[in-house]
Structure formats: C-alpha cells, structure tokens
Amino acid sequence: MATQAARRVEEPAKNRYENAPKNPDFTIDQDWNSYSADEHGRWDRLFARSRKVLQGRACADFLAAVKALKLSESGVPDMERLSDRLEKISGWRVVPVAGLVPDDVFFDHLANKRFPAGAFIRSEKEMEYLEEPDIFHDIFGHVPLLANPVYSDFIQAYGQGGQRALRLGRLANLARLYWYTVEFGLIREKGELRIFGAGIMSSTAESVFALDDPSPHRVAFDLERVMRTSYIIDDFQKIYFVIDSFEQLLKDCYADFGPLYARLENASTIEPHELVPGDRVLSRGTLNYFKGKEHKAAGNG
Fold it and tell me: CA neighbours within 13 Å on the CB side: how many for 284?
C-alpha cells in the first residue's frame, strides 16, 4: 500500500499552471496544445450539462453570445482564437493567468478591456464544486456577456472604479457589488427572472436554486444596499439582487462613488439573510435550505 506521502506525490497538482512563468501583468502562456484528452472531455461534459440547465434560465444575451463565440466547439477553448472572435464584437480580449491575481492587476486588466481567465480546468473530483475559479467558470461563466456592449462597458467601468476603491480603502464595498452582480446577479427579462451572474451560470445546482428554490430572498437591486451586504463564499446565496437591465446597472455604476463611500464609512453591515426597510422584495425567502447549517462569511467584513 502506498504511503500517504507517496499518494501526495502521485496525485496530480490541482492547478498545473501554478508555477508557470508569469509576465509582469501576471499573464501566462495558455499552451493550449498541452491539454489532455481528459481535460478536453471535462470541458465538454461541463458545457453540455450547463447548456441544458440554462435553457430558459440564462438571460437571452448570454445564450446568444455562447453561440456567437462558438463555445460549443469541442474541447477547452483556445483563448487566443476566442479573443479574436470577441474583440471583433466588443473590443475585449481574454488573457490566460495561472489563478487569482492581485487586485490592482485585476482592475488594470478590466480597465483596459482584458479579462483574466484561469487556464487550469477542475479535476474530476471537483466537477460539482470548486472553490477557486477555473477556465470553465471564467470563460463559460464570464466571457459570453462581454459580447454585450452595455454590460462590457460596466465591467470596464468596474475596473476603473476598482483602482479608485483601492486608493480610498473601500475595496470591501466594491467587492460586494461584483459578487452580487457579476458573479451572482439576476435580471428581469420579459417579466421573468433570468440569470446573468457567472457564479450561477457555471454551477448547474445553483442555476436551479437561484430561480426555483423558495429559500433565498430575491430583492430589487439598490447600489448602496448591495455595497452594505456581506456574502457567503462556500454555499448558495441567501439573497439574490435583481437588476432591471444592463443599462440600469451601468447608469447606477457610472455615478460618482465618492459620496457613497463617505456614507458607507459609518454604515452597518447587512447580513445576507436580513431584509431591511426600503427593500423592494420580489420574493421573501423561507431560508429553509440554510436553517440548521453553519456558514462562514469571508473576506467582506
């Protein structure tokens, strides 16, 4: 029987790009030809099951962009070829990185219409749940909506705003905006709720939970309210915020955040399960899924 140490040696690294040479902007060589048949197969299975679940759940712009960007081509996407298609549509490119990058680097990429995407794909045992974003989350979840001109303008503005938030020490508040929109946002579409957040898109289980389960609250988007709300990183969300349109989101986030940051300095944090006066509640959650479970909120005070 192999020893514990031997098993650790034999087990492949979770992220085989972890030690890849990095450029000053933290980008790496994707080395697309190095993906194995198993890795390509994992992408295909993740894509097939997500596409099935998202029909009738994802917003129309997302589904249209998946086709336009040819994400259904077999195997892990080549970021260079994908970028060439995306750049013709919206001017954005996708750049490979080994994993999460420093905040200032991330914001600089977004401000210059470059979306950093992790190059590794999750292992077989992590097909259902992965903590660190991989290429499927980053490309399938995030990239399609970068083909939408209004949404992509919002992401660029977020990158520019992030640079200011770092200087002012308000990054925790801005991170909440990203979490509850870019990662876990819902949108009204022809009177129905649809998904636009990448964290939901890349999780088949949460794609169903976010729209169909009675447990979470669903509340109309309010910028200041969102920036006061902490979030859960290790489970489904207790609250989802709903925008009326990408135009509304862009308009709200083009405002000067200076006065807002000043108010937030003395504002209390709202817990994810709480509803507060002024909320436009679209559906009050039962919270039944969460009752009796212990959760840990991290990184957002």
Answer: 4
Cα–Cα distance measured from residue 13 to residue 99, given in angstroms and rounded to the nearest whole number? 13
Pairing of strands 239-243, 217-220: parallel
Cβ pair 72, 47 in contact under 8 A:
yes
Helix (H) or strand (E) holding 193: strand 192-195
Residues 236 and 243: beta-carbon distance below 8 Å: no
Burial 142-152 (b: 16+ CB within 10 A, else e): bbbbbbbeebb
C-alpha–C-alpha distance, residues 118 and 136, integer Å: 9
Cβ atoms of 65 and 147 within 8 Å: the answer is yes
Q: Quote the CA–CA distance of 265 and 260 in Å, as a whole number.
A: 9
Token digits of residue 45: 């299975």
pLDDT for the residue 93: 98
| The pLDDT of residue 298 | 39
Rounded to an integer, what distance in angstroms lies between the CA atom of residue 2 and that of residue 62?
47
pLDDT digits (tens, 9 = 90+) for 69-85: 999 888 999 999 999 99
Q: What phi and psi values does residue 216 have, to the nearest 5 degrees?
A: -80, 155
What's the CA gap between 129 and 142, in Å, rounded? Answer: 17
- Tokens representing 148 are 């939408």
Q: Which residue has the tokens 């898109």?
A: 201
Residues 6+ apart with CB under 8 A from 232: 238, 272, 295, 296, 297
- In eight-state DSSP terms, residue 141 is I
The residues that bridge with 94 in the sheet, in sequence order, are 115
The pairing of strands 192-195 and 186-189 is antiparallel
How far, rounded to the nearest angstrom, does the alpha carbon of residue 235 sit from its chain's CA centroid?
14
C-alpha to C-alpha distance for 252 and 292, rounded to whole angstroms: 37
Residue 124 confidence (pLDDT) above 90: no
Q: What is the pLDDT of residues 242-272, one digit of tens each?
A: 999 999 999 998 888 989 999 999 999 999 9
Q: Give the up-direction half-sphere exposure of residue 126: CA atoms within 13 A in the CB hemisphere.
A: 17
As given in the structure block, the two tokens for residue 79 are 């970021």
Q: Which two structure tokens, joined as six digits, stand for 8?
A: 């650790």
